[in-house]
Amino acid sequence: MAKNIVAAQFADKCEVQLAYAIGVAQPVSIAIDTFGTGNVSENILIEAVR
Q1: Nearest-angstrom CA–CA distance, 6 and 23
Q2: Of 22, 41, 42, 43, which sits most exposed with the smallest number of CB within 10 A?
């Protein structure tokens, strides 16, 4: 996912963290860090990943 965010030029650097729980289909936690290089808000990127 992080490489796609960088390839789409939403950020120059990106780290994506996903946390899953057994028996839950969706991730229980999504965190995105663009290290200050983002061209769009990290909240917008999180909603796009969801």
Answers
A1: 31
A2: 22
Beta bridge partners of 33: 15
Q: What's the token pair of residue 9?
A: 């030029």
Amino acid at 7: A
Please check whether residue 15 is in contact with residue 8, taking contact to mean a CB–CB distance below 8 angstroms: no
If you average pLDDT over residues 6-25, what whole number do you get? 95
Tens digit of pLDDT for each residue in 16-41? 999 999 999 999 999 999 999 988 98
pLDDT of residue 41: 87
Q: How far is CA 34 from CA 3, 8, 23, in A?
A: 12, 13, 30
Tokens of 31: 């965190």
